């Protein structure tokens, strides 16, 4: 099934360099936690800069190799990693580094006009805190004589943090390429010779392992070919789990016997004096209750039979915090720029009364009001709330514009739909999508006006309050997720609401009209017709992958019921002339 996609961002490397400089100025002006957050954001920006420069050179040469701009970017990244580590170890009292020498060196070089920078999914979605990698490095027993290999993208800044924890000064980064479940490295002769000649220990750093563990596997395969024995290698992943279902038996056996050092995000989130409880209460202390992995449902539903399904491994970390007879909801929103964008979006929607009140950001966690007396909507409630839903979508369409590059275009969405329909229902069903010819899609694409769509229009994402208000939950970050969809025309959310609530044809027409009025824009009925099978095929793909990732029988049953319902709706749409 096709579900995921990459968020590649063409940018001027000098803009990223300017971002690092701005973050360092913010760190110098900040205090305690805010200074630390600025240092982490600077590290992430420097990692994106190095990743973009290295990938640009890789694209031109067809192999990873050392270069002056990469060396200068690595020096900058390492200085920032050392500052982040020192700040954390000292209780947010470490010094702000002088990044000027490395930045001046970079600015004097002939940098590419454009590079492709990638948001790191772990920093943006999965609460990967760089501080934990320095902790793992220190307890590993390795030392300054270690060669640290970072797997791009996120492995670049994480490798710098591992090097900081070890006192190492030698970092290289590599880009595994090829099939997602069978990646390989391409190294220049000089880089291969350097690794072959290295006689000390080697650390390999990344966020995984994922479904196949192929990124770590590509590096281990290359090290084996270069004569680096397994006993000299230490892996630094983000979790202690094994590679997923797409890993072969040999890869699993190797993973099991490799030495690994891991410190989980809980070492940062749960730190007694520096962790999340202190961040939200500004040091006053507070009791936190984790509600990740669908645990939030027990606070909104009296009966587990009413629980909606969740894909627990993709859920953000979530907590409840109670203080002064109020409860606040803390959800991981990301580190650095992505979290700042979500906060701005939250303030816009909260000020308009469409989402719960927002307090602010606390080192990656967005803090908003929790409404424990709210009742999530049921599918049958959709028609009663059409006006409010339409006003919400119209407001998003009017106030949250997005760039044309921020989401999949119609040909990409339809290619996803064809693939998922073919996989789920076979060739005859997939052939019904042939009506959407390239020419028809290209003409329709001209009517698309991308906005920061909600992308989560399920009934349980709407909260009816005792005072009669309706608030939208989980409204901030799914258009910026790492799936294929991204930002779309507001018609995508109109389709989502219509399908999720099972609206009648008259109700669908009314909703679209309401969005047009509230959003001050027309919605092409043909665009809705095109996006409907795409939306349903995406849901079928996402639910199929979620089924393969859960080991909970009750969750499996919930996911299966929803998958069957979405598949039935998809079949209905495909059967229409």
Task: Draw up the topology in text.
Blueprint: E1 8-11, H1 13-29, H2 32-61, H3 68-89, H4 100-108, E2 115-118, H5 121-124, H6 130-139, E3 147-151, H7 155-166, E4 171-174, E5 177-179, E6 182-184, H8 189-197, E7 202-205, H9 214-225, E8 233-236, H10 249-257, E9 259-260, H11 266-269, H12 276-281, E10 287-290, E11 318-323, E12 326-332, H13 337-351, E13 358-362, E14 365-369, E15 375-376, H14 386-399, H15 410-425, H16 427-431, H17 438-445, E16 450-451, E17 462-464, E18 470-472, E19 488-489, H18 491-500, H19 505-519, H20 525-549, H21 553-575
Parallel strand pairs: 3-4, 3-7, 7-8, 8-9
Antiparallel strand pairs: 1-2, 5-6, 10-11, 11-12, 12-14, 13-14, 15-17, 16-19, 17-18
Helix pairs in contact: 1-2, 2-3, 3-4, 3-7, 6-7, 14-19, 15-20, 18-19, 18-20, 20-21
Summarize the structure in words.
It is a single chain. With 577 residues, this protein is an alpha+beta fold. The protein contains 21 helices and 19 strands.
Summarize the structure in short.
With 577 residues, this protein is of the alpha+beta class. It contains 21 helices and 19 strands.
Q: Main sheet?
A: 5 strands, parallel
Which structural category do the helix and sheet elements fall into? Answer: alpha+beta
Strand order of the biggest β-sheet:
4-3-7-8-9
Total strands: the figure is: 19
The amount of helix comes to 40-55%
Identify the overall geometry: globular
Instruction: Please state the oligomeric state of the protein chains shown.
Output: single chain
Residue share in β-strands? 5-15%
User: Whole-number radius of gyration?
Assistant: 24 Å
Mean pLDDT: 94
Low-confidence stretches: none
The end-to-end distance, rounded to whole angstroms, is 25 Å
Helix count, DSSP H or I runs of 4 or more residues: 21
